[in-house]
Amino acid sequence: MDRDLLLSICPALRTALTRARFDTDTMLELLGPDAHAALGRGEPVPVRRAAAGGGDLGTLVRLFLVCDTLPAAEVADALAPLDVATAIAAGLLERDGDGVRAALDLRPLDAGTGTRWMLSDLDGAMRPRQTREDHVLGVGHASLSLLQAMPTDPVGSVLDLGTGCGVQAVRATDFARTVTATDVNARALALAAATAALNEVEIELLEGSWFEPVIGRRFDRIVANPPFVVSTGRVEHTYRDSGLDLDGASELMISRAAEHLNPGGTAAMLASWVHLEDEDWRRRIASWLPAHGVDAWIVQRDVADPALYVGTWLRDGDADPRDPAVAARAEDWLDHFARHKVEGIGFGFVYLRRTDAPSDVLAEDLRHGFTDPLGAEAVAYFERLAWLRDHDVLEARFVVRPDTALERVYLPGADGWQQVVTRVHRGGGPNWQHEVDEPAAALLAGMRADGLPLAELVALLAVAHDEDEQALAERAVVLVQALVRHGLVEPVR
């Protein structure tokens, strides 16, 4: 791959992609839902059949998404005005017998603001291919997860740490005035530069490890999909292996991000952490953060047992578990976990906001299903937390959020249905649930926009339920603070 030549062909390539309508909507129209789903599963035959007769768009689908070898004349028509020989010289295509085929992955992506095109290394999903040490990931599950989880409210500056092919950085140009992207992998920066040029966006690209390229600089937002694989510290592929032991990569990133944020700035990062035999994972992550100046919301979305984790990442690197050398690598990896008493590996999102107050850290398990993106929720969470920091909830009035439901669960008993739990459930966002008792349910029922402050509601409730007012107030403060954090009730502004 010739970086300068690849950059030089981007204007002509963009013209070809635009003319052929190589975009997400038109591609879905051509393929139909079934073949499009097959594409996501890495099954070429249904995609190839659906693309047949699709003109230049069908050719580009087969060339870049199915990785077929096609006649040079057919490719030339689809890529015009880009010359095939020049595309080969740049490293976009390569010759295969009498035909040509893709040498790089090129695909459309719509993250909510229209189609963008992403250039990366081929992943071997459609055509067997050895993963190189400096392999550059494209649009994968992790990058899509972070796209969904990244806040997109307007900011001045964004740092994309470990940019890879530039997926997050390109998206950030939609809501930030300036975007800086770093990577330790020079090949990644070359492909990120080409991706930026292809999409006609400006991104500052800096080579270096972790925060080294931006020492002394601060940003309004940091996004990161770093090499967070939990391992022995051995580096096999730079896109996933940091060279740091266990979850050292996540610790480094989480512990140092805040110092590169402007006051009020936020970070959204993917991370992994170990679950140790005698340590709470929440306490482990909290220990990585300073005692002052950072609000943190840590969301655990999944936990894998060591065997599943090792097997998954070995297969990710094209390793055959039947190979004795690969089996030995797995033994070494699992032995390392066993020595450190690793019971599981957690994965999720870490959101940070820089403040001038004592740090507030909430780490919670959200492994249940929900579809709403977390980016906007993270911004709202920090706003709710700031409100709680500045107000006495007993003096405030509250309303129950419109999508908050009261649920009562009954099980059959000796005398018929017996209530076993009462909870409030938020219908949007991460679908939070909180168990409540009857006085708490009654308290929420009394919340009105034109109603009484919490302290007065508690006083009335204490009389109605014959409870001690002070004790009830203490319980109410804890409950309401938790419900405000999670957005089930809202203060009347």
Description of the molecule:
This protein has 493 residues and is an alpha/beta fold. The chain contains 18 helices and 18 strands. It has helices at 3-8, 10-19, 24-41, 44-51, 55-65, 72-79, 84-90, 141-149, 167-172, 186-198, 248-257, 281-286, 306-316, 324-339, 374-390, 438-445, 454-465, 469-485, and strands at residues 70-71, 93-96, 99-102, 105-110, 115-120, 155-161, 176-183, 204-207, 219-224, 261-276, 292-304, 342-358, 360-365, 398-400, 404-413, 416-426, 433-435, 489-491. Strands 8-7-6-9-10-12-11-13 form an 8-stranded mixed sheet, sandwiched between helices. Strands 1-3-2 form a 3-stranded antiparallel sheet. Helix 11 links the parallel strand 9 (219-224) and strand 10 (261-276). The termini are far apart. The relative contact order is 0.07. The model has no long low-confidence stretch (mean pLDDT 91).
Number of E strands: 18
Largest sheet: 8 strands, mixed
Strand order, sheet with most strands: 8-7-6-9-10-12-11-13
Structural class determined from secondary elements: alpha/beta
Query: Into which percent range does the helicity of residues fall?
Result: 25-40%
What general form does the structure show? elongated
Q: Using only CA atoms, what is the Rg?
A: 26 Å
Please render the helix and strand layout as text.
Elements: H1 3-8, H2 10-19, H3 24-41, H4 44-51, H5 55-65, E1 70-71, H6 72-79, H7 84-90, E2 93-96, E3 99-102, E4 105-110, E5 115-120, H8 141-149, E6 155-161, H9 167-172, E7 176-183, H10 186-198, E8 204-207, E9 219-224, H11 248-257, E10 261-276, H12 281-286, E11 292-304, H13 306-316, H14 324-339, E12 342-358, E13 360-365, H15 374-390, E14 398-400, E15 404-413, E16 416-426, E17 433-435, H16 438-445, H17 454-465, H18 469-485, E18 489-491
Parallel strand pairs: 6-7, 6-9, 7-8, 9-10, 11-13
Antiparallel strand pairs: 1-3, 2-3, 4-5, 10-12, 11-12, 14-18, 15-16, 16-17
Helix pairs in contact: 2-10, 3-4, 4-5, 5-6, 13-14, 17-18
